[in-house]
Amino acid sequence: MNLFIFLALSAFVGGVSLFAAYLQVAKSAEPEYSLSGPFTLRKILFFLAWATPVVLFFVVWGITTVNIPYQDDIDAILESTSAIAEGTGSLREFWSALSKQDDERRIVVVRLVACVMYWVGGSIDFRMIALVGICTYLVFLKLVFTWFKSEPNLPLVLLLPIPYLLFSNFNYVALYQAMVPLQHIAVYVWGFASIWLVARNTRAGLLWGSIFGILSVYSDVTGIFIGPVVAVMLLTCRRWLAAAFWILLFGFISVSYFNGLVMPDFRPTFAQNLASWPDMLLIAVAMPGMIADVFMEGNQTSRLICAAGAGVVSLALVGVSAFRFGRKLVHEREAITPNQWWLAGCILFLMITFFAFAFGRAANGANSILLSRYKHMFAFWAILNYLLIIQLPLFRRTARRYVLILQAAALIYFGSSYFQTWGDMIYLRKTIQTDAYGWTKNREFPSAPIYIAVKKTVDTIFENALRNSIYQFPDLPFECLRQAKVRGTSEIVVRTADFIVVGAEAPDIRCSPDDGIYLIIHSGDEIHMLPMRLRRNTFLCFLRTGRYYAGYCESMAMLRQYLSKNKKYKLTLGVISGSNRYLLTTGKEVSTS
Fold it and tell me: Which residue ranges traverse the bilayer (predicted)?
């Protein structure tokens, strides 16, 4: 990572954001929500400060994403699209292809988007499927903006921290696997939109809320919870007819959804989860506080303890807010606004999700909630908690004093997310590319040893897709290393058991998406390429040296079974750093005798 570019970009984003916050605080005028009329410096800077994290998020994603299916994308998207492209004889068969069980869920929306893309363009682009899901972030941002706009006595400046939380990069894994954004991000956004529309207390709102609720259900199994959440909201509001309609509709959808659905063998049973009750309790308390999990390379136990502490605070806030809401419900029900119903419904939706996760995954260990792919859940939760906080009378009286502190904290969170995850994100990108190279050259998936057990199925899916031009592998940046020149040697450490792992001192490389170091395992015409994970420097070391990566790297582990028997393989390192592409010999070999 170029130190000058990083610091210049950080100074620009931070300066614009903090100056915009300062101008909002300094003015005593009422908040301005419209950009119509004269474009004052205050308006322009506010718009720039609000839009900058969004633009940076999409630019970074656009530069680094790849059009390659990753693991579950193969059977979740490519198989169903291929089946539909080859022809379904009836509407029932078409629906069967869309709603075929994927793990413990049905991902109809993901597959439908893939099919529409195929019908329109003649092929699948996995980047575009992911982009559709990622764009649901904008829907959530619009909901939050509209919530602010209709809330009296809330200064506009309090909006500024929200995009910096929402468009951080801590959940980068969820953004690069094509099925996940439309499945695991969109399910919450469609649910939030459903609650928002139903809370408007209109017939049109109920109708459109039902449509978004159905979208949520058929995005991921988590969407099932939207049924009881909205039903409770309607019954509490005494909207009896609307409640009856909702219960009948989502009762039918839930029954049809679970009809024929079988829990996969690899998921823990209810008894196994109950036996892991300490982890269950820790997950239930820690998930509401996971926004505090900001040190990605820290000890897992310390991260969980920190999250649990923040979770206690978060649950206390929700408890106090629930008490105030309940008291208002008893004494002045009519005074509860649609905005308050929406906030209460969204928090209930997420809280049910958290506790369902605790009951369903406790046997996997509490560490499972630390995975990057879940981080957007905690960003949603943190934003909803933030909306609760700014409604408290105490905060309203002192809000202007702490605006700059809040904005500075949001900026640090946003910048830290990109600094901490950049190396791992680029490594994930290389992992996906390596899988593509492995299958096209050697019929292997280095990142997924389970491929050996499902080889026949996966090979058939790919072969059908390639034969029918449903999908084509893109060119890969490291293929040129096969013709690169040798420019020296490198000392390496080789570990071989079931897996082959190589460690080495890393040469100085840049931080562009294609830059990196690869382990090349070759024997004659048989060549395997594996990316090497580079350690990241601390921030202070980065500022002192200007180097993002530290000096040691280690290759992805590859099963020895992927290599031919009774054969010797040479080990070579391939380096890409900008326009420099070269090889380093090691003098080491591995054999499979």
Answer: 44-63, 106-122, 128-148, 155-175, 181-199, 206-234, 240-262, 274-296, 302-320, 341-358, 378-395, 402-419
> What's the CA gap between 296 and 288, in Å, rounded?
17
78-113 pLDDT, tens digit per residue, is 988 888 887 766 888 888 889 888 888 899 999 999
Cα gap 410→465, rounded to integer Å:
44
With 0-12 / 13-18 / 19 or more C-beta atoms within 10 angstroms meaning exposed / middle / buried, residue 72 is middle
pLDDT at 235 over 70: yes
Strand 558-559 versus strand 516-523 pairing type? unpaired
What are the two backbone dihedrals, phi and then psi, of residue 271, each rounded to the nearest 5 degrees?
Answer: -65, -40
Whole-number average pLDDT of the chain:
88
How deeply is 473 buried, as exposed, middle or buried, from its count of CB atoms within 10 A (0-12, 13-18, 19+)?
middle
Residue 468 dihedral angles phi and psi, to the nearest 5°: -95, 10
pTM of the model: 0.92
Rg of the chain on CA atoms, in Å: 26
Query: What would the two tokens of residue 196 be?
Result: 């928002």
Q: What b/e readout covers 291-318, taking b as 16+ CB neighbours within 10 angstroms? A: bbbbebeeeeeebbebbbebbeebbebb
529 φ, ψ to 5°? -125, 130
**Residue where the block lists tokens 């570019």:** 5
- 585's enclosing H/E stretch is strand 580-591
CB 122 within 8 Å of CB 6: no
30: number of CA atoms within 13 Å, CB side? 6
Identify the three-state secondary structure at position 554: strand
**Are 107 and 220 within 8 A, CB to CB?**
yes
Give the C-alpha separation, 181 to 110, whole Å: 9
Task: Report pLDDT for 159.
Answer: 86
User: What is each CA distance from 524 to 436, 477, 562, 563, 568, in whole angstroms?
Assistant: 21, 22, 16, 13, 10
Helices (H) and strands (E) in the chain, counts: 23, 9
Start-to-end CA distance of the chain, whole Å, equals 42
**Is-contact 47 34, C-beta < 8 A?**
no
